[in-house]
């Protein structure tokens, strides 16, 4: 009862699948959680990932994959409910708290996460990271954005070009 | 011929305006503002929410540093949760598709600022469907660019397509030329969603004919306009229009018929406070729902 049929055509106890990161670490995870990834869902529906053979993910290292799976496991129950129409406000608040905490991380991890979410087609995770990056940009001047994102200091030519464009895009600074 | 006893379908803007101005207690302005805010409340929500007013004082708001000059000197109070970086610019190396996803979530001004970051970001900004919301642009900013000009420049700077335009706070009364230019450019740059509300007075501010040329529209909401004659030189063309809202616009049945005849995909027609007798609306359309408020 803890893991009801999750709509992937399999029944009974939670089906497990194995994912293999680019550095050959094996992760065993419920099929329902892995299926948040559209790409993995197809493989799993085809019967892949069970038994001894895992699904190799040559583009995702183990640090990133464990982070991705943390997200998937947390969001799987709500996703199984079809966007959780019957979720309580408490559940939703808890997910929101989790999400905020989850993206409170280094930019290098944000980068790896959004790339993985994109490659694995995990829509919710991609939106979450994209929103986080947008929030980092919001309300800042171009120089502040450059510093936040870790641009090198502008060369005099770049500075001149920026100044020219700031005039051209005056409406963005009023 | 304009028999006052004939009923509401002979309602004219002049009569409505006269009606408003004939009443005293709350002034005509207060009354119409009340009507407009009611109309705004039933519009579809903005694609990107407006930024909180306080946090976006000005781009150069590094001045409030007297309070607590923390080590991370350039960090704004309001956006203090910016993820720490290691001085290496990884985000810019994301595939265009993902950068577009990020820019598409930004309010108009913030998105525009990314165009200044570098040649690469400028190209990505230009590839992101433009979202323009007058609530994202300050009215008459410190350098005195009127909001209509700011909107026009923003739209002009972008090659299109234009994803969504939402203008709800602008009295277009002294900007007829800018308005005509704006609508023409929106038509040229394939605007998909358009919400255009004129703040009265007057009530019969003419809506430029080019609105009938915006063939890529999927959602169109118009508030407080003098509707153009569809018999004008260019006939309406809305092959993809799914939602049409006419708020406080007097649209003669003949014009409405002509519009609907050119909206084969229309699903929602929303008419609010349009001074038409609803029983006299003849709707010729196949898959239409009507909401009348």
UniProtKB/TrEMBL annotation, chain A:
Residues 124-163 form the SKP1 component dimerisation domain. Part of a SCF (SKP1-cullin-F-box) protein ligase complex. It comes from Eleusine coracana subsp. coracana. This is SKP1-like protein. Residues 16-75 form the SKP1 component POZ domain. Involved in ubiquitination and subsequent proteasomal degradation of target proteins. Together with CUL1, RBX1 and a F-box protein, it forms a SCF E3 ubiquitin ligase complex. The functional specificity of this complex depends on the type of F-box protein. In the SCF complex, it serves as an adapter that links the F-box protein to CUL1. Keywords: Ubl conjugation pathway. Belongs to the SKP1 family. Coiled coil: none annotated. One of its GO terms (biological process) is protein ubiquitination. Pathway: Protein modification; protein ubiquitination. InterPro entries: SKP1 (IPR016897), SKP1-like (IPR001232), SKP1-like_dim_sf (IPR036296), SKP1/BTB/POZ_sf (IPR011333), Skp1_comp_dimer (IPR016072), Skp1_comp_POZ (IPR016073).
UniProtKB/TrEMBL annotation, chain B:
Residues 60-72 have a biased composition (Low complexity). Residues 91-126 form the F-box domain. Residues 180-290 form the F-box/LRR-repeat protein 15/At3g58940/PEG3-like LRR domain. Pfam families: F-box, LRR_At5g56370. Residues 49-87 are annotated as: Disordered. PANTHER family: F-BOX DOMAIN-CONTAINING PROTEIN, PTHR32141. This is F-box domain-containing protein. The lineage of its organism: Eukaryota, Viridiplantae, Streptophyta, Embryophyta, Tracheophyta. The gene is gb02208.
């Amino acid at each position: 009862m803890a893991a009801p049929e999750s709509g992937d055509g399999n029944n009974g106890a939670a089906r497990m699948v194995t994912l293999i990161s680019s550095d050959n670490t094996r992760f065993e995870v419920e099929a329902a959680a892995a299926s948040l990834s559209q790409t993995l869902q197809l493989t799993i529906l085809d019967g892949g990932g069970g038994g001894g053979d895992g699904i190799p993910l040559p583009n995702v290292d183990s640090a990133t994959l464990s982070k991705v799976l943390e997200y998937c496991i947390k969001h799987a129950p709500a996703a199984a409910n079809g966007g959780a129409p019957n979720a309580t406000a408490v559940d939703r608040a808890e997910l929101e708290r989790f999400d905020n905490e989850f993206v409170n991380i280094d930019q290098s991890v944000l980068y790896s996460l959004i790339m993985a979410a994109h490659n694995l087609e995990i829509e919710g995770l991609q939106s979450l990271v994209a929103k986080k990056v947008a929030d980092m940009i919001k309300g800042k001047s171009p120089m502040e954005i450059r510093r936040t994102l870790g641009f090198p200091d502008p060369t005099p030519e770049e500075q001149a070009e920026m100044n020219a464009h700031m005039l051209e895009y005056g409406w963005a600074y009023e | 011929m304009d028999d006052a006893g004939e009923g509401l379908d002979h309602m004219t803007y002049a009569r409505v305006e006269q009606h408003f101005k004939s009443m005293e207690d709350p002034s005509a302005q207060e009354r119409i503002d009340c009507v407009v805010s009611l109309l705004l409340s039933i519009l579809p929500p903005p694609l990107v929410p407006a930024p909180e007013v306080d946090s976006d004082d000005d781009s150069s708001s590094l001045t409030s540093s007297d309070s607590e000059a923390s080590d991370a000197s350039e960090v704004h109070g309001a956006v203090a949760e910016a993820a720490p970086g290691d001085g290496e610019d990884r985000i810019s190396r994301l595939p265009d598709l993902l950068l577009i996803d990020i820019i598409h979530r930004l309010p108009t001004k913030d998105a525009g600022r990314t165009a200044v970051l570098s040649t690469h970001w400028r190209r990505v900004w230009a590839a992101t469907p433009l979202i323009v919301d007058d609530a994202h642009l300050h009215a008459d900013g410190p350098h005195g660019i009127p909001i209509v000009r700011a909107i026009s420049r923003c739209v002009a700077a972008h090659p299109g397509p234009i994803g969504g335009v939402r203008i709800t706070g602008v009295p277009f009364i002294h900007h007829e030329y800018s308005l005509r230019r704006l609508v023409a450019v929106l038509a040229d740059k394939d605007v998909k969603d358009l919400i255009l509300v004129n703040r009265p007075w007057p009530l019969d501010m003419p809506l430029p004919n080019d609105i009938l040329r915006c063939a890529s529209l999927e959602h169109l909401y118009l508030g407080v306009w003098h509707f153009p004659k569809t018999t004008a030189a260019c006939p309406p063309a809305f092959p993809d229009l799914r939602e049409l809202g006419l708020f406080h616009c007097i649209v003669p049945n003949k014009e409405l018929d002509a519009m609907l005849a050119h909206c084969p995909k229309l699903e929602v027609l929303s008419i609010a406070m349009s001074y038409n007798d609803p029983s006299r609306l003849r709707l010729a359309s196949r898959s239409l729902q009507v909401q009348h408020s």
